[in-house]
Write a structure and sequence with these properties.
With 476 residues, this protein is mainly alpha-helical. It has one domain: MFS general substrate transporter like domains (Growth Hormone, Chain: A). It is built from 17 helices and two strands. Strands 1-2 form a two-stranded antiparallel sheet. InterPro entries: MFS, MFS_dom, MFS_trans_sf, Sugar_transport-like. It holds the Pfam family MFS_1. Keywords: Membrane, Transmembrane, Transmembrane helix. It comes from Chitinophaga rhizophila.
Length: 476
């Protein structure tokens, strides 16, 4: 099959490309589930990772984005984004294969230093592929369908994520309880399975059509100045960077907190993650529809306060000694953050694509990824370094209740160790929202109008459901 770009794609080719991009997303999501998130953190802890090393693992996916300048040079040099994406994707999967095979090839198995070293190259080549892939999708996908397409794609990948995460976590917990000596090996084998899923995406990428890009030859460094000179896009960068910093200050350590501090099992942590994903699945189509109808900025302004409320609620998980209360609180938190993240992630991605001019899409989006990488990588690294300091400090807010039976102390808030990060993350996120208000987007609507329409739509559905049920009963 020839991998040369096509000057003009037909509607049939575009539709076929959209289906292939969706299937590619499912293959990549399988790889991400098996080689990241809870399972990666669990493996790192089993290998004796320190807090700083946990933060470094969390920072690698974004830290490597600063090297995307090389991908821009390749795209300008050869003007074939599909070939660059395919080759870099193949190179990105090789370290996963090595990690998965190490326990069978070497008696020492995998060490935390080896894991970090190999994952660096996995994420490095993945960042090269991501730079050209984003620009490729910018030209392939119709702009008027962008919100609905990514919403549908996200919904399918999250359904797969939920199913796979639950299944694998049950298997890992079973191994942990019945065959504890094989727990590390089973976590390592996940990388081998993930590499197979990742390699399957190559076939889909090869078949996906690529429209011929308009290359504007000029000095790469001069091109990178363009997004910074674009006043509106620069404001987006400031917001995106600060928001990602706020999220990554605490999020990478949530699994560590639940595993080590709260003593939850891998399966229970996965169930909570599934709750968040299901909430996102239910709402992502709503956010996609409203982002197309109104604006991505409006969706973010609605979702951001939900995320901040969820992050602040993490600080209260240490208040009660009741495990049942904590699990219910964690479920509520994950519902809030799941709903919020589905809208924020979708809209941030769409907003970046929307504000990037077609002629310089790859430069704009790569500059966005690189600048954000610095912020998102700095946050977990800083968190890992400060973890030991906060482990020896505590802030307690108590209320004293006096009665004829005696005096009782009621704990209102207890900040210690990771809880400090949860509050700091929420505070920084609050300040970052103010930066978003300065970003201009076509079709922007007031948040109150969109919320009013959402509430009206919800009421209409509530009224319609009993009527539908009654009609079905009568028909029977």
């Amino acid at each position: 099959m020839r991998l040369t770009p096509t000057k003009q794609l037909t509607e049939e080719q575009v539709n076929a490309g959209m289906r292939l991009v969706t299937n590619d997303g499912l293959a990549v999501e399988t790889m991400v589930v098996l080689t990241g998130g809870t399972f990666l953190t669990a493996l790192a802890l089993k290998l004796g990772a320190s807090n700083f090393q946990i933060g470094l693992l969390a920072a690698l996916p974004t830290l490597t984005n600063i090297f995307q300048l090389f991908a821009i040079w390749l795209a300008q040099r050869y003007n074939n984004r599909r070939v660059i994406t395919v080759v870099c994707t193949a190179l990105a999967r090789c370290p996963l294969i090595v990690i998965g095979l190490m326990p069978f090839l070497f008696s020492a198995g995998t060490t935390i230093q080896t894991l970090i070293f190999l994952l660096f190259f996995h994420y490095l080549f993945g960042s090269f592929a991501g730079a050209t892939w984003n620009a490729w999708m910018k030209d392939l996908l119709p702009g008027e369908k962008l919100g609905n397409f990514y919403a549908q794609r996200t919904r399918l990948t999250q359904i797969l994520n939920v199913t796979l995460s639950l299944t694998i976590s049950l298997l890992i917990d079973r191994v942990k309880t019945q065959f504890p000596e094989y727990e590390t090996l089973s976590l390592t084998i996940l990388f081998l399975a993930g590499s197979v899923a990742g390699l399957s995406s190559l076939y889909l990428l090869i078949r996906t059509p690529e429209p011929l890009a308009t290359v504007q030859p000029s000095n790469i460094l001069k091109q990178y100045v363009l997004p910074l000179r674009d006043r509106n896009f620069r404001k987006l960068l400031f917001f995106n960077g600060s928001w990602i910093f706020a999220m990554n200050l605490a999020t990478p350590f949530l699994t560590v907190y639940m595993l080590k501090t709260m003593g939850l099992s891998v399966f229970m942590i996965t169930v909570l993650a599934v709750i968040a994903q299901l909430s996102g699945i239910l709402f992502v189509r709503v956010w996609g529809r409203y982002s197309d109808r109104y604006s991505n900025k409006t969706v973010i302004l609605i979702c951001a306060p939900l995320y901040i409320a969820g992050m602040l609620a993490w600080a209260f998980t240490a208040v009660s000694s009741s495990m049942h209360f904590n699990l219910v609180l964690l479920a509520v938190i994950n519902i809030l953050t799941g709903i919020a993240n589905s809208g924020i992630n979708l809209s941030l991605n769409n907003l970046g694509i929307k504000l990037a001019p077609s002629g310089h899409a790859m430069v704009y989006l790569s500059a966005k990824n690189m600048l954000i990488a610095l912020c998102s990588a700095a946050a977990p690294l800083l968190g890992g370094m400060l973890a030991d300091f906060f482990a020896t400090h505590q802030l307690t807010w108590m209320m004293e209740w006096k009665s004829p039976e005696g005096v009782a102390d009621v704990h209102l808030l207890s900040l210690q160790s990771w809880n400090f990060f949860f509050v700091m993350s929420a505070i920084i996120a609050m300040f970052s929202i103010r930066l978003l208000r300065n970003v201009e987007e076509n079709g922007e609507e007031k948040k109150s109008i969109v919320l009013g329409e959402m509430l009206l739509s919800f009421k209409t559905r509530l009224i319609r459901v009993p009527a539908v049920i009654t009609k079905r009963i009568k028909n029977r």
